[in-house]
Design a protein that fits this description.
Length: 308
Amino acid sequence: MTQLTIDSEQLDQLILQRLPMLMRQNPQIQGLILDLARQNFAERKETDDRFYQLLGELRRDREEQSRKWQEYTQEQNRKWEEQNRKWEEQNRKWEEYNQEQNRKWDEQNCKWEEYNQEQNRKWDEQNCKWEEQNRKWEEYAQEQHLQWDEQNRKWEDAKREFDRMHEAIMAIAKKHDRSITALGARWEIKSESSFRNALVGILEKSFDVQVLNITDYDDEGVVFGRPDQIELDVIIKNGLLIICEIKSSISRSDMYTFERKVRFYEKHHQRQANRILVISPMVEAKAEQIAEKLGIEVYSDSMEVKEL
């Protein structure tokens, strides 16, 4: 009989190959394997109970987690709803505020538009008035310009006529000065009266002027400080009024008296004198200063006449 020799490795391989079939065919081997397995592994029932226990714990954990998640979700939803409600309330208030502001702006714009229209209307009305006023002023200026031109022409004519009259008067005065003085000494008459009469005749006949000897009564005593009779020589030519004082000599007090007589005449007759003249061969130096201050023209010689 031949003896077989099997090493441990071959034996292990053989057992692994035969073990499944032996476990199915031999109950003892099955029992032995189970006893060995119980030492390291739980039984099926115990394993199932543990598995179902784990599943139950997992299910409870999942349900708890689901409940917490649902509560968290509900809380978050509630917070979001609350936040949305606040946002909606804020948006509503903001919308109301915008609407109110828009209404106020529309009202302000309406008022501003009405104000602008009113201001534009006033400006248009004012411009119309200015244009009308400017038109009237231009017409008035043109009319005044024409009147001034006409007046200047008349003044030039009157000035030339007066200069011619003055030269003739001064020539006559110079010519008859000695004669009048001699006649006055011989016949004891005043040179003023003689010279005045001669002047009146010459002016009225040669120069077509009207010479008037005005006699008024100063009942208020303006001229002499008491009521008295006032005499003035007045020359009228084409509306030109000239008041003269013809004397053989003029003093400082005579010049003041003549100026008061002129102002009395202007006030009494409501007419302004164009020129005020003093004709005298003898005028005091102080009287000439007073005449210049009072605007009185003084002529003592034809050579001293200044053109105006």
